Amino acid sequence: MARIEETFDGRDWYMIECDDPNCEQRFDDGEWYANEDDLLNDARMDAGWQILYRDEHPELERDMQYCPAHRLPECATCTNIMTDPAGWKDGQCPECIKEEIPNERS
């Protein structure tokens, strides 16, 4: 994961950076978090970061996070996130296409 852990004054502090290979953006580069859960919640809720957990997305090798500029596309009809573009068509994931769910963008 692109979490950065440092030890200051005997405590672990956390920061995250975007997993997009062409991005070096960190969430709030000027602030380290003592609580990893608070960091992830603030990044997601307050700043629009996309946090993907491997246990929710088994196709991922690890947990990942993307800054607002590099968020992965989401299915137009469900909550699936395009981690792999294979099988996606017109903004819909393969599951929605298979179930013939109407595309909300149409």
Your description of this structure?
By secondary structure, the protein is of the alpha+beta class. Helices cover 16% and strands 17% of the residues. The protein is built from two helices and four strands. The chain has a two-stranded antiparallel ribbon. A two-stranded antiparallel sheet has the order 3-4. The model has no long low-confidence stretch (mean pLDDT 87).
Strand order of the largest sheet: 1-2
Radius of gyration: 16 Å
Structural class: alpha+beta
- Gap between N and C termini, in Å? 36 Å
Q: If you average the pLDDT, what whole number results?
A: 87
pLDDT < 50 runs, ≥5 residues:
none
Large-scale geometry: elongated
Q: Give the H and E element order.
A: EEHEEH
Number of strands: 4
Beta-strand residue fraction: 15-25%
The main sheet comes to:
2 strands, antiparallel
Question: What's the SSE blueprint?
Answer:
Blueprint: E1 3-8, E2 11-16, H1 36-47, E3 50-52, E4 64-66, H2 94-98
Brief account:
This protein is 16% helix and 17% strand. By secondary structure, the protein is α+β, with helices and mostly antiparallel strands.
List keywords for this structure.
106 residues, alpha+beta, two-stranded antiparallel ribbon, 4 strands
